[in-house]
Write a structure and sequence with these properties.
7-stranded mixed β-sheet; about 55% helix; alpha+beta; 29 helices
Length: about 850
Amino acid sequence: MRIDLVGVALHLVPPSWRATVRQDLDDEARAQGRGQIWRGAQVVRIAIGLRWTTAGEGAMFDLRSAFRSVWRARWFSAGAAVTFALGIGVNTAVFSSVDRILFRSLPYEQPDELVLLRRCNPDGFCAGSFPAAIAFHGGRRLQTVGEMAAAGLSSTLRQTQVPGELPPLTLTGASANLLRVLGVRPFLGRDVSDEDVRERQMVVLLSYDAWQQRFGAAPDVIGRTLWSSGSTATVIGVLPRGFFPPGWVSGPTWHGLIVEHRGWSTIQPAGAINPPVARLRPGATLEAARAEVTALAAALEAEQTTPPRPGTQLAGVRVDGLERELFSRWRDYAWLVVAAAGLVLLMACANLAGLLLARGRSRERDAALRTALGASAARIIGTSIAETALICLAGAGIAVLVLVWTSQAIAAVLPPLFRQYMTDAIDPRVLLFALAAAFVCAVVAGAWPGARAARLDVVGVLQQGAGRWKRGRLRGGRSLLALETALGVLLVVGAAGAVRSLANYAGEDLGFEPADLYRVAAGATPRLAPAESLARYEQVLDAVLAHPGVIAVAGSDSVVTSPATPMRGFSSDRTIRGGRYEITSGYFGAIGSRLISGREFTEDEVRSRAAVGIVDLAAVRTLWPDRHPTEVPGLQLPIANESPRLIVGVVPNLLEYYGATPTPSLYVPLGADPSAYGPLLIRMAPGVVPSAAALQQTAVGIIGQAAVTITPATEGMDVMLADPRFRAVLLALFAVCALVLAAAGLYALASFEAATRRSEIGVRLALGASARRLRRLILGETLRPVLLGSIVGLVAAYWAASFVQAFWYQVDARDPWTFALAAIVLGATALVAAWLPARRAARTDPAIVLRST
């Protein structure tokens, strides 16, 4: 059987050209003596050229046609672009905030080989300190893990010698080998050298953004001097763009690394450091590294001759992949934000599809004419997608411009984590995301109306006459409206839960009154013996109390109202996880706390270091679960290796921040076990701010050189509200966008159906139907998909509750009142959106309608 290769190949040629191509090639083949294979190859070559040319010409024609169509309906296009900009803008902003956390690789060489070492207890809680002995000896005794580097503590330096002339630079302390371990080369300048380490030079590597913004990208920044209190540092390099240290930056701003050679910076064999990073040696596995590091910790523990200091315990060392663990605490949080933003984008696409469906019904005659003149179904759909793409691109452009203009305002409401790693709105990855999202939405939203237009009854539409729409409902529009409503219910439920959670955080009883309460700390104080430190601390307390405006002074070895770790555990009983604090008499009255039962320490008890104690509610529940707090004063608290303490009072749990989990606390008289003393709390008269200069003078006069810092007690607590506040603001914004999109879609659908049923409405009015009855009829039919979508949304919200429960504070994610509120809000929005078209339709003049029919 002989195959006609030319005939098969001709199927690649456009139909209108096949006869001409075959005739020309037959003539040329006879003249040159060519065979069938040559003619088939020539047909394929010509077909590719023709297809490319005709496709290009057709695409350009369709694009010009789409542009003219969008421009003729510019008000409709502008409205559609603005509503779409809501969805794409939200998603672009979210992507710029979570890109580095979720989607980008860490900015280090082969980050999958890097591991993070931490010290964790059996419950999974990992401490912020790590035994330096493992990092010091690990490089020599470990075969699976290379040298270790650490980063974490922050320092502030100035660009000039004059304090306050320019904002300070916030620098993250790092070990000298950090960049070497990470495999990172400075963008400008050099890395830390062995000479810097030997001479203990304090050196700085600026971040790329700090070099650009604070130093104007000056190439001579290398060698410049930065100042801190009593010391200087030299800039030796600029870090690559996008670099950040392998740890959690403590503040919202970060300007670079500093190697200051204070203890852990050079990793000494004693003490504690921040959790270090290391690189696996070639061929080593994570499991082998875990086993070897655990064995090293056990060996070093056996070699110890003295009890380990706090933070240097060797038990519970973990080794995990850095890329997985660095942002593990926030990945679920970030995915929640991404999922909520995705719902808004899906609503925007559904809304756009509904608007285009309605507009497509008004242009059915144009689509029928194009089909009658030979346009294929693919051509009709492609034109619809092209029109939608122009609208989506315009919406994406609007969104990006708004993000550029409002980037600082957006950064202000972001929690510190997202603010640190937020990407610019004009970053190529962000712009590419916006374009990709716009393209996907254009295909999704434009294909459906295009497919509907391609399946038109051409003869029936053309017989209706120009300017007359086909009667009937908008098929597919109600399904889209139900989908929008379901997504809107999900977002409103989430917003309601986030707002209630924030209210629970902000309204929580901290156990004390932070207003007009200030923390005072004296930095760079001289090292004194414990007894001398206690004596001078008590002198400072008496002197500060005499300052104008000071109502009360409270002293302790660890400030209870701050996130500072207590100096001592609750007791030698390691099963009780809590803290012990040394406090002055009148401490709880000074900080605005109340006594649940019993009394505070007397001055005589503090002066004599009496064996008395005060416990909080968490301690009562742990030690005496069967006792009421009022029954605890007068009980003896036995403590191993100590004399029993008489409990004289019970106080509320003092929370260092909103949402903190209370732990058992034992308060004993100041000086019971003298150590180091520094911070204190002062209660000021309402509206009076403590004088830093006066407190500085007092501190210098008693303890010598000291740099006094004054911090409102509310400062750290406001920071802890950043995450719940951000969730509430963000989800509330998403919910507002959802309501706007749902209202726009419903209004468009109701207006369209009212217009297509104009004749029916006129007949009903002519036959005696009242305007009220017509409004009720139109509202009922329009709101039916809203009811269906609300039910679907509530079911979906009930199912999703198990995933979002971890983000709500003292709020049941399946609270029926929250669900009812979401349904009411969506229903009210839908009612308002549908009322206007129904009201306008009920005012139709039947005489005018019947004359025009």
